[in-house]
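DM from R.C. (forwarded with permission)

"hey, sorry to bug you on a friday — could you get me a structure for this? deadline for the figure draft is monday and I only need the backbone to look sensible"
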Amino acid sequence: MSKIASLLSVAIVLLAIANPGRAEDALPLPATFDFTQPKVPDSWEVVQPEGATVTAKDNFLILECPADRHAGVKHKLGVDNVTVTARIHDAAAVYLVWDDKNFVGAGKISPTPFARFHSVDSRDGKISDVDHTGCPGYVAHLIRVQLGDDCIRFQYVNGDGEQTWRTLRTIERTPEYAGAPKLVVVGKNLGITKDAAMLVNTDSVGRGNRGLLAKVEITETPAEVLKMNSDERRWLTAPKLDPVAELLKDSDRDPTFEEVARFYPEMKNKRELVGVPGQRTDIGTDWLGRIDASPWEGPIAWFEIGEDALPFADTYDQVSHRLLDGYVPIVNLKTKRGDTDYDMTVFGWAEDFSPTADLYTYVRLTAWNNGETANLPKTIALAGKEQKKVAFTPETTPAGMMTLCVRFKHPDPKTAEQISEKDFEAHRAKAETAWRDTLAKCSPFELPDPRVNEAYRAWLAYSMLNADRIDGKLHVHDGAGFYDLQFGYSVAIHSMALDLYRLPEYVADVLSTQVHLQKSDGHYIQECGLPDQGGFVLAHATHYLVTKDEEWLKQNAKPLKKACEWIMARRAEGPTEGMCKGLIKFRPYNDYNDPVFNYQGNIYCCQGIEAAALALGEIGDVETAERYAAEGAKYRQDIYDSMDAATITHHGVKMIPIEPDTQRLLKLTKYKGGEYYGLVASTLFENEFFPKDDPRGALYRNMLENEGGLAAGVCEFQEGIDHAYTGGYLLDRMRAGEIRKVLLGFWSFMAYGMTRDTYSPVEVTLHKTGDNHYTLPHTYSCTQQLRLLRYMLLREEDGNLVIAQGIPSAWLEPSKHIAVTDAPTLFGPMSYRIETADSESASIHLDPPTRTTPGEIRIHLRHPQGRKIAVVKGAEDAKFTVEEDVIRLSKRTDPVDLHVTFAEGP
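My reply, with the result:
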């Protein structure tokens, strides 16, 4: 052997010793592969089973594959301690593979229309996969798997913009992952089998079947991150406690807003809505003080201040938000730049507060620098994404206050003009008066907590702004600039809520739109599915049962009965035996379009028919009422029987699916109680379908409470919360007397489900970080918040009236009062007032409903110190009994005053 060959042989041996994690044919690093070209890079092998396609097209590698097989591309690796990054759109993942049974990966999946990040690790064939936070699937993300000496990290960052990597999770690098991975793979469903326990069809809109790959980069993992850090190790070993839920274990006191809110930050992406009820467009103000018509499309107008064209604010935390008096839709935004305080007021006005007249946005911007004028801006421009800047010269008073007032025809900032402060203030006063008059009609509660007192009025205002008058018909949309649609189930439950807030004419207007949209065969569907039909019937029947407007029901009996007949006809077409006997197979809700047997829609249809029987019987249609009552009883039993037959035990936990024959939602949650399963499970309780202590309800409740269905006391969704869907569960807990759970959920609504300063509720919040979807203010959330508050103060149960059961005990502290005035109930309007002059006593004035007499009226007085009721004094004819903290009045029809003395101790 020559000397050169001998030296070369020694060098190779030394190199192998120095690089034990590198195979002989290892991939040279760094390596970058471009998949935007017309063909797959030569060194990559395509995996394309029957029924799948892997195609280089349209500047992507397009992967299309059913859920039960793997497709993608793979490349030899042979290098240890690498970081592999893939630029991915839609649903695909990047994997490091040691062999068929040992691999790890991260990416995006979309088994529903909502995409989310995903990570997976397989050890000796045992797969553990985690669905992480939601994400916009169609946009680009950089997904990476980072291999270290003792750890493996799954991370992501937005594909464009700021490159701040976030870790989805970190796992220990166990012996199964020793040595260099053999392959890097990008694709879909690695390790899946046709009989996989969690296998479900992808969503019916199809996005879950597709993945797009643009680029793959492979580099050495930097030396400084080869070892797991202390925070990562602590996360692996520390108990995964929910600090908000732990409040119920820490003491026997009621949780408070301040206690619940202290754990996590407030919402970052705030948005308020101002304008005029019924207008087709509405005026949004966002977290940076910009004006929009849609949060999804971005701002339409914003100020650029001074010669440097500074925005009102650079970051969300520089801006404070406040509605006028906390609830009137005239929003005030404050910020500070240097030594200068800026104040912006925004409202909308249309002549005569009309839903059809031209809507104008009014904006006033002031600046104050302690009387100094030298540094105040001399010019301010109104900029927009589709226009040239319009420059204005603000006025400055001798005292040093700079003011600029402008208006424009919404949503067209090109029409902007400068107006006088007098003109601005005149229109602001009109808007204020109109809103105060509107909200006064539907504000039956005066509460000792200023936050709640303001919030429920704001929820009513936001709901009215989200509703649009279209061709004379009032359309209740779930949002403004987003979800500009009627979701039939949401419309139904919204109308039932507003019937309890003194708005019978408004609700009749909403229901007339539903009738207008009903099909000739009695079918009603608006975006959701079967719950729309049941909701249609239940809302119409409930409106009568609350108002007892016989003339209205007689006019609407035909569409009501047509809707009931449609339900009965669909039941007759369904199975006559087996697990799904008597159930209707239909589209379940707007996020899944394929027909299934789903309990939510069937429960709504059942309860709708039951309520229709009551209503029609009261206006003399006895024959129809009896037929519907019999049908409702059979329907209810069929649902109970189906639930009993569908009950399963998984890993020792007894549970009932939402979809009995497919278990689809359970599979999507890996047989846990969160995500869509938890959202839908909670809705099963919202109209009291299950009797108290029903074993079926207990199984659903156990999944929510003990199997991951709740976070911070409300419904978990994609590592965040979707608080509004918790309404049914919280009502169920109120019926059970578990008031602290109710209050925990209510304060989580307030702390994490909405903006804390303007009470604008959102559909989904990542509550641990403060990130939130742009879906605010959200009508369905307003609806559930209004319903929950009303039930805390006043609710009906089994022919009885229950008062103040769910209120925080702090509302009965000395010198506080609670007033409910002319609140609609199933028994007729009623009022009460509870006052506590000191901690020893309370005074109650009660005006019972007189239209129908409740069996009993139960007044709950949960003393802040846990004291029980010692003595109650009242009129001689007041028949009552006392049980701990409850006063029971039997068959009371006349007003009564009661004076309560509390015992010395708990």
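R.C.: lifesaver. Confidence is low (pLDDT under 50) at residues 1-18, 203-207.
me: no worries. The chain has 18 helices and 50 strands.
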